[in-house]
């Protein structure tokens, strides 16, 4: 039975190369009412999936078979899709600012931790334009 969640039904891309961890994350997402997308275990699979689907959020393992997930994080940022890095590594070891500056959870992440970070990221979703619309400028409106 899922808990009451204002974000129930939101789609969360899971990018994780270790299958058992990926399936555990998907299960935890379902527990709290999210719809897992994936999981995918390589940068290429994640980028291909983003060409076909638009998740509301993403959870990214920092390294996929020793390959940094940076291209996926950059693609998500271009699409204005909020993401969180889930890693066993310290933030200071992140290879690029796009990963270093992202919200971060330590492995293993609990359902409550995942739900909490997605709730925080949801504030970004509220500011995100609909697909095909321009992103609002940072300047003052009329």
The structural domain count equals 1
Q: Taking strands numbered 1, 2, ... along the chain, how are they ordered across the largest sheet? A: 2-1-3-6-7
CATH architecture label name? 3-Layer(aba) Sandwich
Which structural class matches the secondary elements?
alpha/beta
Q: Please tally the helical runs, counting DSSP H or I stretches of 4 or more residues.
A: 5
- In this structure, how is the largest beta sheet organized? 5 strands, parallel
| CATH class division | Alpha Beta
CATH topology: Rossmann fold
Multimeric state: single chain
Helicity range: 25-40%
Keywords summarizing the entry:
disordered C terminus; 5-stranded parallel sheet; globular; Rossmann fold; 7 strands; alpha/beta; two-stranded antiparallel sheet; 142 residues
What do you see in this structure?
The chain has 142 residues and is α/β, with parallel strands linked by helices. The strands form two sheets. It has a five-stranded parallel sheet, sandwiched between helices. It has one domain (11-124): 3-Layer(aba) Sandwich (Rossmann fold), CATH 3.40.50. α1 links the parallel β1 and β2 (35-40). Helices cover 37% and strands 20% of the residues. α2 packs parallel to α3. The chain is globular and about 35 Å long. It has helices spanning 19-31, 43-52, 70-78, 97-100, 111-127, and strands at 11-15, 35-40, 57-61, 63-64, 67-68, 83-87, 104-106. It is built from five helices and seven strands.
């Amino acid at each position: 039975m899922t808990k009451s969640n204002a974000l129930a039904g939101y789609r969360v891309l899971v990018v994780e190369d270790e299958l058992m961890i990926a399936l555990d994350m998907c299960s935890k997402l379902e527990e709290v009412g999210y719809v897992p997308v994936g999981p995918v275990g390589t940068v290429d699979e994640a980028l291909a999936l983003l060409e076909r689907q638009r998740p509301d959020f993403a959870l990214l393992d920092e390294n996929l078979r020793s390959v940094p997930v940076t291209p996926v994080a950059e693609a998500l940022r271009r699409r204005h899709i909020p993401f969180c890095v889930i890693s066993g590594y310290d933030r200071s070891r992140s290879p690029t600012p796009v990963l270093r500056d992202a919200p971060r959870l330590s492995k293993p992440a609990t359902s409550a931790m995942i739900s909490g970070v997605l709730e925080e990221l949801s504030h970004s979703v509220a500011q995100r334009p609909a697909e095909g619309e321009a992103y609002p400028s940072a300047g003052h409106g009329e």
